[in-house]
Amino acid sequence: MTTMHLPVSVLNLAPIREGQTAKQAIDSMVELAQATEKMGYQRYWIAEHHNTPTLVSSATSILIKHTLEHTSTIRVGSGGIMLPNHSPLVVAEQFGTMATMYPNRVELGLRSAPGTDMKTASALRRSKADPVYTFPDDVKALLTYLAEIQQGFVKAHPGVGTNIPIYILGSSTDSAYLAASLGLPYVFASHFAPRYMEEAISIYRERFQPSEYLDQPYMMVCLNVIAAETDEEAKLLSTTMQQFFLNVVRGSQNPLQPPVENMDELWSPMEKEMAASMSSVTLLGSKETIRQQLAGFQEKYNVDEIMAVSYIYDPEKQNRSYEIFKDVVEGK
User: Residue 130: which residues within 8 A CB-CB, separation 6 or more?
Assistant: First the structure.
């Protein structure tokens, strides 16, 4: 697939920027959805994280509903719902209700991770059994609840017959095997865990079983995109992303920070290396630089869709980054 016909979409973790309230962060999330909808992005997904004071994405389905309400055409979904935290029936009812209100605009990305620390995970969970092992069964239950014809006594109302598209998300090879065996589209989390990307892509493609949902593999990759007018400006803007990953490395709780001139004043060489390994799959630079990087990426992996996440402090520059990236895939 050439970059010219490459569908592109957006992932938002809904971070709180330095100086923002939680309400303002939710408003920013909606404003980005409205801006990227106008640019012609395919879909807009919102993540799920818990016990994280710097992100407002704990009640994902409520944020999706809020975003659907304030947009008109873009598809809105979860990137992803952390299924260990939820009963499949409740997820089917929530998403089925949204799909009834906003037909053909709701999508459901699913992950087997809890999206939080273990203490919070046990506070969220519906059972003490290790839910990672029940993930394949939970996905199958969801597919059943949302299908036209439902087996069994328990049904999701509304939900029946909504056939909401389901995507398997992952950052390891386990998710690739599952997505392939169920014949579902697959999304790899290269934006923070690129280590197994290459292996996961090839496992998914090699083992894909055609299904009623897909007749051939549909491979999406989520990666970081920081695009600006010049390479220098993009490098400066990317220090916000670097500070975001430094937060992760340190386990600190800083909101999304403005760019800085010199990251080496903030991190140790070891922290730098750890943060760099998490963000190694990043398209960074001016339009021309991004064009070359994307062509190189596609030459190697030839994915079906790219989902871009951009940790940029200034909302206008974040919008501009998405605009430049869209221009690149359209060959402008």
Answer: none
Other CB atoms within 10 A of residue 43 CB: 23
Q: In a 3-state reduction of DSSP, which class is residue 250?
A: helix
Q: What is the pLDDT of residue 276?
A: 96
State the residue for tokens 């499949």.
Answer: 88
- Residues 6 or more apart from 185 whose CB is under 8 A from it? 165, 167, 168, 179, 213, 214, 218, 219, 220
Residue 139, burial from CB neighbour count under 10 angstroms (0-12, 13-18, 19+): buried
Q: What pTM value is reported for the model?
A: 0.95
Average pLDDT on 172-196 reads: 96
| Burial class, 146, CB count within 10 angstroms (exposed 0-12 / middle 13-18 / buried 19+) | buried
Identify each DSSP E strand in the chain by its residue range.
8-12, 43-46, 75-82, 106-111, 166-170, 186-188, 219-227, 282-285, 305-309
Angle at 290 between CA 284 and CA 292, to 5 degrees: 125
Report in angstroms the alpha-carbon separations of 126 from 47, 79, 172: 20, 21, 24
Exposure string (b/e) for 14-35, b if CB count within 10 Å is 16 or more? Answer: bbbbeebeeeebbebbbebbeb
DSSP characters over 154-181: ---TTTTT----EEEEESSHHHHHHHHH
Is it true that the peptide bond before 158 is cis, omega within 30 degrees of 0?
yes
Structure confidence by residue, pLDDT tens digits, 129-142: 555 568 999 999 99
Sign of CA dihedral 217, 224, 285, 321: positive
Spatial distance between the Cα atoms of 74 and 186, rounded to a whole number of angstroms: 20
Q: What percent of the chain has pLDDT over 90?
A: 83
Q: Which H or E run includes 299?
A: helix 287-301
| Number of other residues whose CB lies within 10 A of the CB of residue 155 | 15
Cβ atoms within 10 Å, residue 157: 12
List the Cα angle 190/195/198 in 5-degree steps.
Answer: 75
